[in-house]
Structure formats: C-alpha cells, structure tokens
Amino acid sequence: MKIAILTSGGDSAGMNAVVRAVVKVGILKGCETWVVREGYEGLVRGNTEAVSEQSLDEEPIELPDNASTDGSSTNLIHNLRFGDGDLLKDGTGDHPGARSLKGRYIVRAGFDDVRGWFAEGGTLIGTARSKTFRTQEGRLQAAYNMIKEGLDALVVCGGDGSLTGADVFRAEWPKLVETLQSEGRITAEKAKLHAHLRIVGLVGSIDNDMSMTDLTIGAPTALHRICEAIDNINSTASSHSRAFVLEVMGRHCGWLALLAGVSGGADFIFIPERPPTSQSWEDEMCDCIHRHREVGKRKTIVIVAEGAIDRNLNPIKADHVKDVLTERLGLDTRVTTLGHTQRGGRPCAYDRVLPTLQGMEAVETLLEATPTSPSYMIGIQENKITRVPLMEAVAMTRAVSAAIEAKDFEKAMSYRDPEFKE
Ligand code: F6P
Question: What's a single GO CC term here (predicted)?
C-alpha cells in the first residue's frame, strides 16, 4: 500500500509527530510512505510532469532493517526542517533544498526524513486552506495526481472542515476515477487498480472542539502555553494590584479558556458553551471579583474565550470586559491577547505521545479498511485510542454549534459530556 499524509487547516503542535509516526509505522508494516506539502493544495498541484519522470515510484520499498541506517529515501524533505524555500511559491528560494522541492508537492518520505520530528512545532510539511480542493475540478486533479504517483491511501490531520473534505473526496472517488478514465487521463487498468480510496482522519486542532474524542492533537500544548502566560502575568498583576483580561483562542469552543482558568486560578471565565446565567454578566462578574478583592486578593485574572457570548448570543469582548472592570470596580486593568503564541512552539510531552499512538492506529486502520467500511477518525476516549466513524464525529461537532446557536446550552453540553447536568 502507498500511503500519503497531509496536514490541513490551522497548524497545531503534534502534527509533525503524526507525520513521523505514520511514516515510520507505515514503513515497518511494509507500505510506501509519502507526504503531501501544503495540505490539499499540494494534492491538487501534484508533481509537474518533468519531476514526475524522476519519480521515486520505481524505487524498492524501504524495509525496516535498512530503514534506521540508510532510510533517507528522498532527502528532499530534510530541508523543510530548516524552513528553506518559500514552499507556497513552489520552492523558488535559492537554497538547494528549496530548488529540489520545486514542482514537487507529493514527496516520498523515509525513516530519516522524519527523524526528530516529534519535537518540532507547527507542521513541517506545510498547511494551507485550499480553495481549489473545494471545487470538483480541484478534487479531480487531486485524484489524478494521487493515481499518477500510485497512491491508494490518505491520512489527513486537521480540524472538522479538513476531515469532512477527506470524506467527501473518498465518497466521490469512484466517480472521479470514472471521469479520469473517460477523459483518457488514466488507463482502464489504473482505474481498476485505484477503484477505492482508503482514508483516515486524525484531529489536529488546538481548540479541542471535536466530538467523539476527549482530546485533539495540539490542545494540551496550547493549554500549557496559556498556563505559562497566566503564571507570568500573575506576578506582574500582583505587583501592581492590577486586573488582567486574557483573550484566548478556541474558536467556538471554550475548552482552552475553561481549563486555563482552572489551572491558572482565574477569577472569572467566559466560554461560549455556558454563558453567564444572569441577564447582566457585568453584575455577575463584578460581584464575584469584588468578593475576591474583599478577601484580600491583590490581582484579578479574567479569561475570555474568543468565541464567548452572553445569554442573548452577543459576543463578549475582552476590551469591553476591561472597561467594565475599570469603570465599575476602579481596577487598573490591562488586556492581553495571547494570539498565535498559543499555537506555535514545541509540543509538550503529551502532544508527542498522543499523535504517536494515533498515527500507529491510523496505519492499522488503513490496512484493515475495506471498500464498504466507513471512513474512520482516530480519537481517544477514556485514555484508550479509538476509531470512530468520521462523519458521525463531524455531524455531532456541528450539532454542538447548532445547539449553541439555538441557545440550547444544555443540549450543547450534553453532546460534549453526556453526564452533564446544569
Ligand atoms: O482553529 C485553530 C485556531 O487557532 C482558532 O483557535 C483561531 O480562532 C483560529 O485558528 C485562528 O486562525 P488564523 O491563524 O487563520 O488566524
């Protein structure tokens, strides 16, 4: 089996560990492993004809016993590690590494190529939000490029949008193959050989916003970053007896804000899933913080999830929270928006372990896939690596957002935690 892996959507710590695990385990299981640069965009761009002639397709499959010594099947992606070349501009940089990647978006990867990747932040193979892959024409080209390189399995690591894209691609695959054959772009023999696509999804997102899994890859590291930031802010806040309002990422999910608040000792937390219970969150927050100050606290920390809303579904913004604290409680208040510092940087230990275990499971899942089995998403539930039907997880994730939009917070929480009671 020839497996390709891509990372898609917002990057997250741990994505490189996924690539490393899939490449290494894939090879150990006797597969050929490839990486796709720049997410789905790379799949659409593929390898130019000239480069494809030098394709490594015909090289012998790398075997485990030579993998540790001479496993560098391409050496091409070694260069990605050092950030050489503007990859989205098609490797037009001056560095030899950048030149060697010119016109190559689908690249064979060996053991040595991914050595040490578990400790690298972001995604070394790049990610992009591809507009072309959203079109059928783009997906047709992507299918052609995969077949051209002889690939029959795809691992996608990304958020719910990226995983939905993978499932759509798989569902459409037979039709795409038929079209390619009828247009004379592939032979009947190739069409038969590539009649089905095997796919598997892993959830890479700092937001921890996917249903049917307890944790997404990158969320623990982001939480750790926020925690460190709160520790740093605590000392300066305390010195000046100030209040700080911290805006944290998470899109429509309050997991990062909630857990950061608990682990950093925040005074008040705003999350989308559970808006303040009273009509006036301003009163509720001020009463709480006033009480804390009364018992002698010298500092105040308020955490606002970027998707936080009030009971009427109006956004709660950090600047407004600051004004309320300043005007109503007379606190010297500052706003800190942590931004992308939450997303980048080295993965914490758990964001190396989780992707490694899930990457192993992803390869097993592909090896066991049949044309009729559903597309799977690899998750973790109650500390066990799981396989769940990908579209069920995506549908439930969307149902949470819909419930929040319909102000049915209890229902939204019940999807995230079936035992939840307000
Ligand atoms: O989904 C990950 C995330 O970091 C969200 O928390 C945030 O809202 C968004 O991506 C930011 O996206 P961008 O990097 O495109 O600004």
Answer: mitochondrion
Of 391, 12, 380, the closest CA to residue 222 belongs to 12
Which of helix, strand or coil describes residue 352?
helix
**From 113, 207, 267, 351, the catalytic residue:** 207
Give me the residues paired with residue 248 across strands.
305
**55 among annotated binding-site residues:** no
Cα 300 to middle of ligand 1, angstroms: 27
The residue ranges of the chain whose pLDDT is under 70 are 49-101, 415-422
Hey, which residues does 337 pair with through a beta bridge? 247
**Nearest CA residue ID for atom 8, ligand 1:** 251
- Nearest CA residue ID for atom 10, ligand 1: 10
pLDDT in tens, 332-378: 999 999 999 999 999 999 999 999 999 999 999 999 999 899 999 99
Sequence-distant (≥ 6) Cβ neighbours of residue 221 within 8 angstroms: 12, 13, 14, 206, 345, 346, 347, 348, 350, 351
* Cβ 217 vs Cβ 278: under 8 Å: no
- In short, whether 205's Cβ falls inside 6 Å of ligand 1 is yes
Q: Cα–Cα distances in Å, from 290 out to 226, 322, 331, 341?
A: 25, 15, 10, 31
Q: What does each C-alpha distance from 259 to 208, 248, 255, 285, 334 come to in angstroms?
A: 11, 11, 6, 18, 21
**CA 12, CA 158: separation in Å to the nearest integer?**
9
Atom of ligand 1 nearest to the CA of 250: 6
207: annotated active-site residue: yes
| Distance of CA 253 from the midpoint of ligand 1 (Å) | 12
- Is 207 known as a binding-site position? yes
pLDDT tens track for 121-160: 999 999 988 899 999 999 999 999 999 999 999 999 999 8
Indicate if ligand 1 lies below 6 Å from the C-beta of 10: yes
pLDDT of residue 288: 97
Supply the pLDDT for residue 62. 38
Residue 370: CB atoms within 10 Å: 7
Is the distance from the beta carbon of residue 162 to the nearest atom of ligand 1 less than 6 Å? no
Q: Is the CB of 343 under 6 A from ligand 1?
A: yes
